Amino acid sequence: MNPNKIILTLLVLVLSLQSCTKDVDFDQIDDASIHTTYIATLIHLNLNVPNFLNELNEEITFSQDLIQAPVPTETRSYLEKIEFTVLTNNTFERNFTLDVVFYNDNNQPIYVLQPQIFIPENSSEVTTILEIPEEDIAVIYDTAYFGFTLVLSQSTDGSVLSVNGTSTLEIQSFFKLFFNYKNI
Amino acid sequence: MRKLIILSFLVCTFSYAQNKQVLYDFSSLPQTLILNPGAEVNHKIHVGMPLLSQLSFQAGFTGFSVYDIFADDGIDINDKIRNAVNNYGTSEFMALNQQLEVLNIGFRLKNNSFLSFGYYQEFDFIAKFPRDIVDLFYEGNTEINRHYSINKLAARAELFGVLHVGLSKKINKKLQVGGRVKLYSSVFNANSRLNTGSFSTSEGDDNIYTQHLDNVNFLMQTSGVFIDEEEDVDGKYVKNKLLFGGNLGLGFDAGFTYHPKKQWTVTGSILDVGFVNYSKNVESYRVKGDYEIEGFQLNFDPNNPQDYWNDLKDEFDDSIVLDTLYKSYIALRPIKLNGSISYSYGQKYDDCRFLIDPNTYLNKVGFQFYSNVSAVHSYIAATLFYERRLGKHLQTKITYTADPYSFSNIGVGLSTQLGIFNTYFVADNLLSLNNLYDAKSASFQLGVNFIVKHKN
């Protein structure tokens, strides 16, 4: 047989016996979801006895601080949960509590992070995990300020803080953002 | 809209950029002179059909195929996405190249040199994505002490027109050399390369974690992308820019064909050694610096309230500086290298005159090499080929190519000549024809020429 015909026949056979595509289903994209977690460092503090005394060396039992934090709204459709991890070290002979409250533009409280962070007296490496669940997540986008309220508990024996005291309160923290990219 | 995006992605996953391994040195086509200005052509005159003498489309993505993700195989798409991410290399790249030959004319001079000239339009896009960026998107940054680097992040996109003129000259029986001068006119260019920087999270001193942006140096140069509002961007604008109203550049090609022995042929070419000077509508961005953050240190001091957020923002802006630059810049064209060695055999038998044509061989086998060298991404490809003349009017070429995308790329080329009317079609990655969705590599070029041969 003429080699030219063999080559041509083979070429035609190869090309004609091929089907162009196998089955694909682009609607599967509806089921696609990518779960991504980002961590970010948050607040930290290291307070000593003088931080809890006023000019007259009287105890201040109630301290507040605020952070303005504009939250970008681009992630609104995908953010599922926020988890806060707080690590405390307390050498005071007193308990503390720390409340985190979200405020809107009008300085109105719109959300209280649960549970309240309890810092036992003379405690080290106490970890508290708090979360904003999916059903409350929208509140983060209405938040203009995060308010932190630190409360020094009364002593049980009536003793007061001494200006010469060396006790410290350390708080460290980070948060995790849980995204679910779906309906891309 | 979503399906449009998927379809666009699909188009981008079909093929392979820039390497025209089937067309190279094929059938003495006029277009081989574009790939090797020192190629031997045996005709007297050629005129490419305006706008139809070469339509070329090539694109590719080395990461995964459409079929890898969307195969209708009962496997959960999320498992397939995870699998694709797990198989993602240190960096993968996406490329898209399109060429439209508007004009291609050539004729033999009295001294037997061959002069050719023409004009073509080209769109070229390539982007290289490091795995770190994919992992950062897919998994997040929870891996402590891992440096998510942008060092391999690079991209280039450009649209331009090329006016070219070349000469192929026979030095002696063994050697033919050629050169081509090119004038580039760019509509737009955007490029980013040689970037450095990483993002990481480590254990902190004052807080649980410290987060770092280290050695960030990112530059994106653009020209013709951000355009004055009073300028209308329409067909007329693009045409004007393509026809030398844009940013101009200069380049050259060089090539040779050498016959160490009668049946042996060695060819080589270097293409697009040149540059474009971008001075119009330039707007570039540079981000540079280092930054480290341990979070907000609260002081609970009502007598000394602090604006934590704005202090942090100011500190960040001082550390990581974003500059907008309007200075002109020069961009080098990606250089392409071609080479081949081939052996011809099987002399042609003239049925009419009952003679063997001593100068025409029916078969040619050989090896080709291709390399693309650029600041964004460089790669090489190797090809084995067999070329055969089938009768008077048909010439074929079959190639096997190994490249960064595939080790099983089979290509084929067909060129027919009826009188002065020549048509050709070349395509590669034929093995993927049974499932185009699974193709990472394919390309096609086709065209119509009028070729006047020498009278025998």
Give a description of the structure.
- The complex is a heterodimer of chains A (184) and B (456).
- Chain A has 184 residues and is mainly beta.
- Chain A has one helix at 3-16, and strands at 33-48, 62-68, 79-90, 96-103, 109-112, 117-119, 123-132, 145-152, 168-182.
- Chain A has one domain (24-182): Jelly Rolls (Sandwich).
- Helices cover 8% and strands 45% of the residues of chain A.
- In chain A, the strands form two sheets. In chain A, strands 2, 4, 5, 6 and 8 form a five-stranded antiparallel sheet that branches. Chain A has a four-stranded antiparallel sheet with strand order 1-9-3-7, with no helix packed on it.
- In chain A, strand 4 (96-103) and strand 5 form a beta hairpin.
- Chain B is mainly beta.
- Chain B is 13% helix and 53% strand.
- Chain B has helices at 2-12, 32-35, 66-70, 77-86, 131-138, 235-245, 308-319, and strands at residues 43-48, 54-61, 91-108, 114-130, 148-149, 154-170, 175-192, 196-203, 209-223, 247-258, 264-278, 284-293, 296-297, 320-325, 329-332, 335-350, 355-373, 379-390, 394-402, 409-418, 421-427, 443-453.
- In chain B, a hairpin with a 5-residue loop joins strand 8 and strand 9 (209-223).
- Classes of the chains: A mainly beta (184), B mainly beta (456).
- The interface between A and B is large, with 52 and 54 residues.
Please supply descriptive tags for the structure shown above.
heterodimer, A: mainly beta, Jelly Rolls, 5-stranded antiparallel sheet, 4-stranded antiparallel sheet, 9 strands, B: 456 residues, mainly beta, Porin, 21-stranded antiparallel sheet, 53% strand, disordered N terminus
Rough shape of chain A? elongated
- Number of discrete domains of chain B: 1
Taking Cα atoms only, what radius of gyration of chain A do you get, to the nearest Å?
30 Å
Question: Number of folding domains of chain A?
Answer: 1
- Under the CATH scheme, which architecture of chain B would be assigned? Beta Barrel
Estimated radius of gyration of chain B:
27 Å
Poorly predicted parts of chain A: none
- Given as residue ranges, the uncertain stretches of chain B (5+ residues, pLDDT < 50) are 1-17
Beta content of chain A comes to over 45%
Shape of chain B: elongated
Assembly type of the chains comes to heterodimer
Number of strands of chain B: 22
Sheet-strand content of chain B, in percent, reads over 45%
**Most extensive interface, residues per chain?**
A-B, 52 and 54 residues
CATH topology tier name of chain B: Porin
